[in-house]
Amino acid sequence: MNSLVPNISQLENQTTPFCTANNLQFCGPLQFAGYDPRNTLPYTENWMLDLQWQPVNDLVLRVAYVGNHGVHELIPIPFNQALVATPSNPINGQIYSYGYDIPGVAAEKIQTITDGFLTGNASLRVPFIGFDPNSQYNKAIGQSNYHALQFNVTKRATRNLTLFGSYTWSHSLDEESGAQLFYNGNNPLNPRSGYGNSDFDRTHVLTVSFQYDLPKANNLKGFTSHIINGWGLGGLIVAQSGQPYSVIDFSGGAAGQFYGGGQDAVTNPIIPLGGVGSVAGTNPRAQGTTGVNPANPVLNAAAFGVPLLAPGQNGVPPCDPSTGVCDFYETGFGSTGRNIFRGPFQSRVDMTVFKQFKLTERFRLKFDLQAFNLFNHPSFDTPNNNVRFNPFFSSFPRYAPRAGQADQSCGTATLGFAYRCNPPGGQLGVIQHTIGSPRFLQMALHLTF
To answer: Exposed, middle or buried by CB within 10 Å (0-12, 13-18, 19+), for 244?
Structure first.
């Protein structure tokens, strides 16, 4: 037990933050992060089937299947995440699970500290008292799979032309992509529920590159030959699918029951389609993902809502019989899959014009004029994927009101009501960035010897 953390009896009678009451600063349950010493070393299994055919001397056609499987991959897991306490499954003496404090609900008399804030009884429903629910271990429990069908055409340098073309149709899936500080999914204690498209997955990738040396005029000599001969063209064309992404809420609109409202500092919880606060039957895709009109959103925020838990279920205290007050504000993890949306398709064309000078048998000079993104075509990044059902980490998440309750504005907080905020706060689905540069020209001079 951290000496600065109050014991259970102190927490049960606490009405003001323990740290403030004892003139202590920066105190509370210990927030710990580390590497699980029981981890097994990650490894991958790789396999490939490659068929090549050379119909003529300067042309090679290739088709290949490539696959790999990764195991024991690192995932940041909050090992002390609050558990669900119920009357039939008490945890550390707690029989209810709540992250908010609703005056008038007698069952919610205990207030603990999570990440420096009062957060219901979340810090008592943890496996290890004294550690913050946001404490985490990097655990080697992840897995990944990749499958790809590849087509390649290579034309070697004959008749002054070199050509390479490649098309890949692939799919990469995992539970966490790359080295991440946060778990990007639903319940991190069930990482298999986050198995989905990798962050870097590109279904279609087409690449074409070429270099063409213009024919020489062999009858020219001297200065005229230097000017007319030695010219060439080169280029690179890339077209590929956009990257996958999820819709998340940093403000505590999801997983509030487990991290005490908005004090989730170690996961990026996914906001589900069709949750409370959404508009029934709304198509989440507003204008597709082409990025043709980046000023308009490509996702409809009204299709998303909080994963609300009903009073008396999933550990949430029932409505208080003496006051009639209910806790309508606890949220769990959603069930919408990870990375189910995809950003806009991307393409670019790079070209170069070059001139080679043969100074002597030993010295050669090459001048390049290079144009990157020749047609100045914008490639749009994934849109903003963040919503805020709890703007500025206010007291309670805001969502569409239940029948018979007042319809409050999104900026009003009156205890006892649910709050309409359709669409929720944020700029969900708005494309705000491009990938790569606009058209960029540069010149270069190379001396080889």
So the answer is: buried
